[in-house]
Amino acid sequence: MRLDVYVHFAKPDMCEILARLDAMSNLLKGLLTKVTIMSAELTALTTEVEEMGTVVDSAVTLINGLAAQIVALKDDPAALAALAASLDAKAAELGAAVAANTPSE
Asked: 0.85 exceeded by the pTM?
Protein backbone atom coordinates (compact mmCIF):
# COMPACT_ATOMS: atom_id res chain seq x y z
CA MET A 1 0.00 0.00 0.00
CA ARG A 2 1.24 3.48 -0.79
CA LEU A 3 0.08 6.69 0.83
CA ASP A 4 1.35 10.07 -0.39
CA VAL A 5 0.83 13.10 1.82
CA TYR A 6 1.22 16.67 0.61
CA VAL A 7 1.28 19.45 3.17
CA HIS A 8 0.78 23.08 2.14
CA PHE A 9 1.30 26.02 4.48
CA ALA A 10 0.74 29.71 3.77
CA LYS A 11 3.80 30.66 5.79
CA PRO A 12 6.19 27.74 6.12
CA ASP A 13 7.25 27.25 9.74
CA MET A 14 9.50 24.23 9.96
CA CYS A 15 8.60 23.41 13.57
CA GLU A 16 4.89 23.48 12.76
CA ILE A 17 5.45 21.35 9.65
CA LEU A 18 7.43 18.78 11.61
CA ALA A 19 4.86 18.71 14.40
CA ARG A 20 2.03 18.10 11.93
CA LEU A 21 3.99 15.45 10.08
CA ASP A 22 4.76 13.74 13.39
CA ALA A 23 1.07 13.80 14.33
CA MET A 24 0.14 12.37 10.93
CA SER A 25 2.79 9.68 11.32
CA ASN A 26 1.35 8.68 14.69
CA LEU A 27 -2.16 8.51 13.22
CA LEU A 28 -0.94 6.34 10.36
CA LYS A 29 0.89 4.00 12.76
CA GLY A 30 -2.31 3.66 14.79
CA LEU A 31 -4.28 2.95 11.63
CA LEU A 32 -1.76 0.30 10.55
CA THR A 33 -1.99 -1.35 13.96
CA LYS A 34 -5.78 -1.47 13.74
CA VAL A 35 -5.67 -2.87 10.19
CA THR A 36 -3.25 -5.58 11.35
CA ILE A 37 -5.54 -6.51 14.26
CA MET A 38 -8.57 -6.50 11.98
CA SER A 39 -6.77 -8.76 9.50
CA ALA A 40 -5.96 -11.28 12.24
CA GLU A 41 -9.55 -11.19 13.49
CA LEU A 42 -10.87 -11.71 9.96
CA THR A 43 -8.56 -14.71 9.50
CA ALA A 44 -9.78 -16.21 12.78
CA LEU A 45 -13.42 -15.60 11.82
CA THR A 46 -12.88 -17.16 8.39
CA THR A 47 -11.40 -20.26 10.04
CA GLU A 48 -14.36 -20.51 12.42
CA VAL A 49 -16.86 -20.20 9.56
CA GLU A 50 -15.05 -22.95 7.63
CA GLU A 51 -15.10 -25.20 10.71
CA MET A 52 -18.80 -24.51 11.22
CA GLY A 53 -19.45 -25.44 7.59
CA THR A 54 -17.75 -28.78 8.20
CA VAL A 55 -19.87 -29.39 11.29
CA VAL A 56 -23.07 -28.52 9.43
CA ASP A 57 -22.11 -30.80 6.53
CA SER A 58 -21.47 -33.63 8.99
CA ALA A 59 -24.85 -33.08 10.66
CA VAL A 60 -26.64 -33.15 7.29
CA THR A 61 -24.86 -36.40 6.38
CA LEU A 62 -25.84 -37.90 9.74
CA ILE A 63 -29.48 -36.91 9.37
CA ASN A 64 -29.68 -38.22 5.82
CA GLY A 65 -28.04 -41.46 6.92
CA LEU A 66 -30.47 -41.85 9.80
CA ALA A 67 -33.45 -41.46 7.50
CA ALA A 68 -32.10 -44.19 5.22
CA GLN A 69 -31.40 -46.48 8.18
CA ILE A 70 -34.90 -46.01 9.59
CA VAL A 71 -36.45 -46.91 6.25
CA ALA A 72 -34.18 -49.96 5.95
CA LEU A 73 -34.96 -51.12 9.51
CA LYS A 74 -38.70 -50.40 9.55
CA ASP A 75 -39.55 -54.09 9.93
CA ASP A 76 -36.94 -54.87 12.63
CA PRO A 77 -37.99 -53.42 16.02
CA ALA A 78 -34.80 -54.54 17.80
CA ALA A 79 -32.59 -52.86 15.21
CA LEU A 80 -34.73 -49.71 15.39
CA ALA A 81 -34.34 -49.67 19.18
CA ALA A 82 -30.56 -50.01 18.83
CA LEU A 83 -30.54 -47.17 16.29
CA ALA A 84 -32.61 -45.01 18.66
CA ALA A 85 -30.15 -45.72 21.48
CA SER A 86 -27.25 -44.79 19.21
CA LEU A 87 -29.03 -41.58 18.24
CA ASP A 88 -29.63 -40.71 21.91
CA ALA A 89 -25.93 -41.20 22.65
CA LYS A 90 -24.93 -38.98 19.74
CA ALA A 91 -27.45 -36.32 20.79
CA ALA A 92 -25.97 -36.29 24.31
CA GLU A 93 -22.47 -36.06 22.85
CA LEU A 94 -23.49 -33.15 20.62
CA GLY A 95 -25.21 -31.38 23.52
CA ALA A 96 -22.09 -31.71 25.67
CA ALA A 97 -19.88 -30.40 22.86
CA VAL A 98 -22.15 -27.38 22.32
CA ALA A 99 -22.25 -26.64 26.05
CA ALA A 100 -18.47 -26.96 26.34
CA ASN A 101 -17.90 -24.52 23.46
CA THR A 102 -20.50 -21.94 24.41
CA PRO A 103 -19.02 -18.99 26.30
CA SER A 104 -20.82 -17.99 29.47
CA GLU A 105 -22.06 -14.42 29.62
From this structure: no
